[in-house]
Amino acid sequence: MQKRIDSGVVRLSGRLLSVSLSLPLLLSITACSGAEHDTLEDGDAGRGSLDGSSASEGDGDAHPHGDGGGDPDGGHGDGDAAGDGDVGTGDGDSGPGDCAVGYADDGSGTCQDVDECQQGRASCDLHASCVNTPGSYTCACADGWVGDGQAPFGCASRIEAGYSHVCVIPLDGSVKCWGDGTAGRLGYGDTSSYGAATGQTVTAQAPLALPAGRKALGLALGYKYSCVLLDDGSVRCWGANDYGQLGQGDNTMRGDTASSTPDKIPAVELGAGRKAVAIRAGYEFTCAVLDDHSVKCWGENGRGQLGQGDTTARGDDAGELGDALKAVDLGTGRHVRALDLAYKTACAVLDTGKVKCWGDNSSGQLGIGDTSKNFGDNADEMGDMLPTVDLGSNDEISEVSAGGLSFCTRSETDAVKCWGLNSSFAVLGNGTANDIGDDPDEMGSNLAPVKLGTGITPWALATSATNTCVISRNPAAVKCWGDNQYGELALGTTGGLIGDSAAEMGDNLPLYDLGGVPVAMGVGSSFICSLLADGKLKCTGANYSGALGIGSNVSSYSDNDVPAAAELW
Could you say which of 196, 267, 282, 405 would form a disulfide bridge with 421 (CB–CB 3.0 to 4.6 Å)? Predict the structure, then answer.
């Protein structure tokens, strides 16, 4: 009988992975026959669930890091778990110590299946579940997430929100976008907005034209532009392109004409032989995590946010991308296992579990205790010279999520800590209106975790300049705070902030109730869109240019009576 355990709680010695390697590696485990284990690389990523129910209903092609994706050196596709990481010698005999990989002698000479999920031998993404199989295991992304489930970039949220537009990946791997269409950011070959006129629901919206045979495995939405990660590891971007953020070697807008839809846009040049495994968008700059777990960024660079040691934009002139674009130097031997971009700042979780940030520091968002300088705009500020963010404990960080001028992290012990700008919308959830990270003695042990309330177990973060949300499991629930001017917190009221008073946090912080539990969320500017466990898509808050996707020009929705914009499964 198959046994299932959510990978988010599988740990060995405080880590998500065993085999004494610091970066999560995919352990390709073979059964007695010697066949490779099924990591759903055959195109069927499957859907897991927050409650650990069995995987079902495949959703697309294999994640581009396929073979070698969990290993920065690219090697795990041969079925060998780092050479010697699994029990057994693999010769098929049943004598003591002579079991095939994925099996172990039970002491009586009989080879019994090893439960890699239960024992922490599996390497599944934080937003995937692990299913034990005879001699092996599989990873399956949770509802609302897409990918092959392999750590560390095997699952991406099916929904992303920009400033005033939203895109989603349905189960068939297509992409639909709605909201503000200025600059062609929706990608339908015009600049029309979608979602405010009668009948313009997400269900009725046509899918975007993607390259033939390709499916989407990730989305990144900036201020007036959008990017998609496809299942061949390529990246395509459309919309505004003032600083080369589309990665085309010019500053020409795309997506606004029939000749510049996503299927007609060349892939961003990432370097010879390189593929992307994750993409992120800031205000007007874009970063991709590559299959060697390096990071390359292009677009606007006025604050050093590209991590190149200068303030020169990349991607707006020919010859600046591909092999000519250097990977961000994060220190000797370091590579990335999580990344997110704010307005003009980037933060990465390294293989050490530490966090480094670079770019704009106007509100203390670099977490260095002052605002005296940016990092990344001078040659001597990156690499080993780039400081780590002091988060005050020895916990390894699992996830980072960016607001406009702020960041939040989730640790392996499920502590959520936030820093940066807070005075505008109380997005830090610290029970005050004070910014954090701009003065000495605010970081480290002085930075307290966000009080989420009894029993809330953070599983995923979703943030913007105006709001922060935490998706919990066990119990399945969501809590959000920040701006409520347009009713985005679904409290049935509009106006005010939640989170700028200590009395509003902890058990007093209400659940984000949409009549169902969100499993993935896209947080925009004063609106929140959620995919619920039953497959419904619901959005609350401001309805800028139809951002709620409900086919109505109503200005906002403030409670759980908001109609569903679509049913995706």
Answer: 405
